[in-house]
Amino acid sequence: MPQLLPMVGQSAARVRAGAKARVVLVGFEDQDNLGLRYLSSRLKQDGHHTRIVAFGKGAAPILDAVRSLDAHVVGFSLIFQYMVPQFRVVMEELRADGVNAHFTIGGHYASFEPEALLSAIPQLDSVVRFEGEDTLVELTERIAAGLEWSGTPGIVHRGPAGVGFVHGPRRQGRETLDELPWPDRDDIVYRDQRTPTASMLGSRGCPWVCSFCSIITFYEGNGTKGRRRRDPARVVDELEYLHRDRGVAVVLWQDDDFLAGGPVAVRWAHRVAEEAIRRGLHHTLRWKLSCRSDEVKPETVEPLVRAGLTHVYLGVESGDEESLEHLNKRLKPEVHLRARDVLRQLGVTFDFGFMLMEPWCTIDTVRANINFLRAFVGDGSSPATFCRMLPYVGTASQKQLLDEGRFYETNLQADYSFLDPRLDTYYKWLLRTFDSRNFTRTGTLNLLRIVQFQANLQKVGPVLDAAVRGIISANNLAVFDALEDALNHVESERDAASDGGFLDLLTEGQARTDARSRLDLGAFELVFAADQEASRGPVCEPV
User: Fold this and answer.
1) Can you give the C-alpha Rg of the chain in angstroms?
2) What is the predicted pLDDT for the residue at 412?
3) Do residues 427 and 357 make contact, with C-beta atoms less than 8 angstroms apart?
4) In which band, very low, low, confident or very high, does the pLDDT at 536 lie, cut at 50, 70 and 90?
5) Domains of the chain
6) Looking at the DSSP assignment, which residues form a beta bridge with residue 23?
7) CA dist 297 → 147, 252, 267, 344, 511 (Å)
8) C-alpha distance from residue 404 to each of 115, 214, 357 (Å)
9) CB-hemisphere CA count at 13 Å for 235?
10) What is the pLDDT of residue 455?
11) Coil, strand or helix: which one is 420?
12) Would you give the distance in Å from CA 61 to the centre of its chain?
């Protein structure tokens, strides 16, 4: 690995010119995009001017911001690899409208495949790799001062005359996160939200080595292995500000794993909880966090519940032992079942990530996963979710698929075929049958999650709570039946791909199942709205 340069010290641009940069930051923002907002606050810390624009409404809002700010730099945050073509179109339109500001981009995919991005988007000038707060400050100061920017540590750009690529020295990430200012939230009016909800980070990084995840390799490239945690008192300072000054009612912890790191990490989490309770935040502020199933123990979670925890995202991923080994998850299926029971006993709702299929799966492992889901959430403990594992760049899974000659890209989207061709047929059916339910904001899965969260947040009582669980259970069981019937079909048919009639019937049946569930959910929306009006309690937006 190349020598990492320290991030301390003033940039040449600041020393020589004292120039103040004007930067437009652009990225997808379903929830608070903390990546962009930390970049913005870091720039503002040094006196620069920024504006944040949500990606997704074409080039016009970005163009307006660039012109009104007279921006030196437009920084793009690429969260999802599949959105590369959309970013390319927007940059093409901005250049066509006469924007000559420096275009740079960052994110996980950008950090691992900078040359691919520069090749795919000719309008792009540079790529910022790994954590970008200090790199972007130095890059923009150089540009604003009219100085040579190509030597900025932490970036990749095209070579002379556009030939080849130049990788600058990597930049050392900050070991002490409390040195960074809080994320820039100046443009957000939380009190206008139906339920004022903010995202927060208490740490960065993860010590686990799951084969499908790029987090560990991202932070290794940043020179910061493992997990860096902020000071608990300063974390609660930010919590208190969001709650008391900005009206936030629900905090979504965006830490990759809020409890990762053994006893030291648990003590850190408990210190955050104790400080929040000491300041009285637990009365009216609620939490959602993410963790692994083996970290869910009564003695670990109960202090967090007292501090306001109401919902957990569990990284379950698989219920089949062989698939769990492929994913390097290092868990047994029964651990997930125990975590569910602990959360239920503590009155905490949960949702979870689950990979029904992965590159090395078989008919038997998929069937085991379906059976596991029946045992795990057949009772309606949580809406059933599932997807196929994607081999993100920078992961061990991608490397293994490359070694096997099974990894390929279509329009920069990572893909692979299954070892058993029957599973390719099964996956195509899965995608067309459950795409709307599982992967859209207005899909049945998200609506089930919202109602589950609302019921727990508002403490609607055991009768309504049981009714919500009944709706979720009915939808889940119908989904599992369809999954199992389709799997049995592709297993038994010599050429399942040529016999789509039965699979089409299953798809139509699933559409009817979702329609029934949505009708039932509509009634609960009216109940929750009336309850909110009477009690002035929060109703949750999608999380």
Assistant:
1) 24
2) 75
3) yes
4) very low
5) 12-167 (3.40.50.280)
6) 50, 73
7) 55, 21, 14, 12, 38
8) 23, 19, 18
9) 26
10) 85
11) coil
12) 24
Query: Residues 256, 291: contact at Cβ < 8 Å?
Result: no
> Are the beta carbons of 479 and 472 closer than 8 angstroms?
no
For residue 179, the 8-state DSSP code is G
Residue with tokens 């009714």: 467
Amino acid at 165: F
pLDDT average, residue stretch 309-338: 95
Question: What are the pLDDT digits (tens) for 256-278?
Answer: 999 999 999 999 999 999 999 99
**Nearest Cα residue to 134 out of 173, 101, 185:** 173
Give Cα separations from 205 to 137, 219, 367 (angstroms). 22, 6, 33
CB atoms within 10 A of CB 225: 11
- Short-list 434, 445, 427, CA closest to 366: 427
pLDDT of res. 528? 52
pLDDT given at position 18: 60
Give me the mean pLDDT over the 98-106 stretch.
98
Which residues are 127's β-sheet partners? Answer: 105, 156
Burial class from Cβ neighbours inside 10 Å (0-12, 13-18, 19+) for residue 534 reads: exposed
Query: Where are any strands of DSSP class E within 223-303?
Result: 227-229, 250-253, 286-291
**Does the pLDDT at position 424 exceed 80?**
yes
The model's pTM is 0.91
CA distances (Å), 463 to each of 460, 467, 470, in order?
Answer: 8, 6, 11
State residue 496's pLDDT score: 52
Instruction: Evaluate if residue 169 carries a pLDDT over 60.
Output: yes
Contact (Cβ atoms closer than 8 angstroms) between residue 7 and residue 46: no
Q: SS3 for 70-106, per residue?
A: CCCEEEEECCCHHHHHHHHHHHHHHHHCCCCCEEEEE
Going by pLDDT thresholds of 50, 70 and 90, the confidence category of residue 531 is: very low
C-alpha pair distances (Å), 336 with each of 245, 316, 345: 38, 7, 14
Q: Are strands 413-415 and 22-27 parallel, antiparallel or unpaired?
A: unpaired
Tell me if 287 sits within 8 A of 310, measured CB to CB. yes
Predicted local confidence at residue 371, as pLDDT: 98
CA nearest to 132, candidates 26, 35, 243: 35
β-strand partners of 209: none
Query: Count of CB atoms within 10 A of residue 26's CB?
Result: 29
**Confidence band, pLDDT 50/70/90 cuts, at residue 538:** very low
Contacts of 495 by beta carbon, 8 Å cutoff, 6+ apart: none
Share of the chain above pLDDT 90, in %: 80
Tell how far CA 306 is from the center of its chain. Answer: 26
The three-point CA angle 164-170-175 to 5° equals 160
Tokens linked to 197: 């909800």
Q: Tell me the pLDDT band of 227, cut-offs 50, 70 and 90.
A: very high
Angle at 174 between CA 30 and CA 285, to 5 degrees: 45
Mean pLDDT of the chain: 90
